[in-house]
Specification:
By secondary structure, this protein is α/β, with parallel strands linked by helices. The strands form three sheets. The chain has a six-stranded parallel sheet with strand order 2-1-3-4-5-11, sandwiched between helices. The radius of gyration is 21 Å and the shape is elongated. It has two domains: 193 residues, Response regulator (Rossmann fold), CATH 3.40.50.2300; 151 residues, Rossmann fold, CATH 3.40.50.2300. It binds beta-D-glucopyranose. Beta-D-glucopyranose (BGC) binds next to loops.
Length: 390
């Protein structure tokens, strides 16, 4: 993404942050660890912080003065995490915080050492989008011992009581919106069918992946059971359709195998349920190379530029839009509430159990974008410019 795109994005970040439904109610603060002492923070041990996306501006507020926030992101490979990181950094700095933003190249060990450095570097709060939700228990014990509160960002961190809060989009709803889109587009309740479908979901180490999958399959499985949807590969259980690291190449090679084994004889494929855009891209690449039949409905998530372009070209039907500006704004608000000892705003205290208890959560609402509404959702909101999509 160009600096220009990013700066447009960031310039609109604050004003547009409430565009997509993120309203919620306050609940009593959970047992968040008390803020760490704010005396002298040693400099962050690593030099690898991503550069700020925009020129340094004087903070608009001094709310965070003297406080440092560590922001751990999984990878720069996917567009969304670059936006998440840039939005978080921009909004935290605008509130006067010092920020230590790190990307871990999807490598768990790298992320663990980045978090260690954030702890040693005097961060007062940690905001973490994990690579593997199960792998941070040990390092977060250190955070807990140092009384540093942790907010799990977008992905829940599992198996530890060191997570104070979770902020994300409603992940189950992402799946139901994908499933409902398929039902509505094919008029599955009335059409005779049968329709053919294949399924691709995400990384088994990402707690979100099962929520996406379950949300969609809870709606679609009854049609499989009645024979109106036929999965010719026979594979639609979560483990069979998971994609390691959410990688486009992995999704693509599985799609190529399926297409050559089950659709090379001219059978039409009507639906490919994909949990997100990186996997949808793999499926779209495989279709372009290996399939001549009727083009299927393909779902996605994130509204990545490449996928929105494909949507415009008729190669992807929809993508769930999760406005990363909104999530960042919510997390910055939660950081402030934690550090001021205020009640932290959450709107879900039931859904996200990480194995050590339910983590109080704030769920933003996703929406879907398709060819009919993408201009309104993505351009009018300032998320992209026309030029970005050319
Ligand atoms: C996020 C998705 C993203 C996927 C791959 C998930 O945890 O919620 O938005 O597409 O990871 O990075």
């Amino acid at each position: 993404m160009s600096r220009k795109v990013l700066s447009v994005l960031l310039a609109t970040a604050m004003t547009a942050s409430l565009l997509v439904g993120c309203g919620g109610s306050a609940a009593p603060a959970a047992d968040a660890a008390a803020p760490a002492a704010t005396e002298e923070a040693a400099p962050a041990a690593t030099e690898e912080a991503a550069p700020a996306a925009t020129e340094e501006a004087a903070p608009a507020s001094d709310e965070g003065a003297g406080m440092k926030v560590g922001v751990a992101m999984p990878t720069k490979d996917l567009q969304r995490w670059n936006q998440d990181g840039a939005n978080m950094e921009e909004q935290l700095k605008a509130a006067g915080y010092e920020v230590d933003l790190q990307y871990a190249s999807n490598d768990v060990q790298t992320q663990v050492s980045q978090i260690e450095n954030m702890i040693n570097g005097g961060c007062n709060v940690l905001v973490i989008a994990s690579i593997d939700g199960e792998s941070l228990g040990t390092v977060l014990e250190t955070a807990k011992a140092a009384n540093i509160p942790v907010i799990a960002y977008d992905r829940l961190i599992m198996g530890t009581d060191a997570v104070s809060y979770y902020a994300t989009f409603d992940n189950y709803m992402v799946g139901t919106k994908q499933g409902q889109y398929i039902i509505d587009t094919l008029d599955l309740n009335n059409a005779a069918g049968p329709f053919t479908m294949e399924v691709t979901t995400g990384d088994p180490g990402d707690n979100n992946a099962k929520f996406f999958y379950n949300g969609a399959m809870d709606l679609l499985k009854p049609f499989i059971d009645e024979g109106k949807i036929v999965v010719k590969s026979g594979k639609y259980d979560f483990d069979s359709v998971a994609t390691q690291s959410w990688a486009t190449e992995n999704a693509q090679s599985r799609a190529e195998n399926i297409l050559s084994s089950f659709y090379a004889d001219g059978t039409d494929l009507d639906i490919w349920l994909c949990s997100n855009d990186s996997t949808a891209l793999g499926v779209e690449n495989a279709l372009a190379a290996n399939y001549k039949g009727k083009y299927p409905i393909i779902t996605g998530q994130d509204c990545d530029v490449a996928n929105v372009k494909n949507m415009i070209d008729g190669k992807q039907s929809m993508s769930i839009f999760k406005d990363t500006r909104t999530l960042a704004a919510q997390v910055v608000k939660m950081v402030g509430q934690i550090l001021k000892g205020e009640t932290v705003e959450v709107n879900d205290t039931e859904t996200y159990d990480n194995g050590k208890g339910v983590v109080p959560s704030y769920l933003c609402e996703p929406v879907f974008a398709d060819i009919n509404n993408y201009k309104e959702i993505l351009l009018d909101s300032g998320y992209y410019t026309e030029a970005d999509l050319q």
